[in-house]
Amino acid sequence: MIDIEAKPGLDGDVYRTLLESTRAIPWKIDWNTMTFAYIGPQIEALLGWTPESWASVQDWIDRMHPEDRAWVVDFCVAQSKDGIDHEADYRALCKNGEYVWIRDVVHVVRDADGAVEALVGFMFDISERKRTEERLLNLQRELERLSFKDGLTGVGNRRCFDKVLRNEWNCAQRSRQPLSLVLLDIDYFKQYNDHYGHIQGDNCLKRVGALLDSVASRPRDFLARYGGEEFVLVLPETDAQSACRLAERCRELIEQSRMPHEKSKAAPVLTVSLGVGAVVPDMASEPLSLIDAVDRALYQAKTQGRNRVAMAEPS
Questions:
Q1: What pLDDT shows up at residue 251?
Q2: SS3 state of residue 305
């Protein structure tokens, strides 16, 4: 295998020692023959392949992960033809069948006429960096997931509700399908907290959240804690009658759970009041109009005696 030429003023052995003492792996490819003129002995410690086994560019290609191969080769060849120095990250195959993340830093060498003569560069093992990046990405995803989750009940939080409602509103505008909203409030929850204590109050909210979650069974049905003792259901492609039936199931399910509530004026057990609204939104309307209508319906259910479902006036 041909050696990399020594730099002016440096003894060849000294130059080789400098190259081969680094953790980076130096290499050189002759452009006309597409063969390796040199590759550092460090390659064997990293990948298991001896320097002598790196004869041509095809060896480099064959020892690349199949998912990375096409784009890396196309990119590097195009950049090299244009005489542009470049970098590429890819997974390199080890002799034992495992893969290591490599960063190739490439410099294009031209002859006196400006034609590409050779490629020289360094390979760097970036596996640890990639593992760190993956851990950080997973952590970021987990933090994002938690940021949309109510810490007490485990259902969606208000921030997540705002996002889901906006997305479903846009879908309903495009598809001209109805979108329904159910807003639910636990009856006399302040009195429940005062009588049973905040720990039992938290347990009550968790149980209500779990019961409601069992009703929102379709893939796009969405449940969130709207605030305090209020929960909200977003029901895509659901008309007013269907939403009312589901709201009534929610009311019955919670009443039939028979959670004691001695201080309630509605019943001796825990109950809820619900407001329901449905709309086929036009392109000029906003989700706030539906929220306001459902909130008024909830207020109506409360003023009529609680433990009941009230329907918003059609807009």
A1: 97
A2: coil
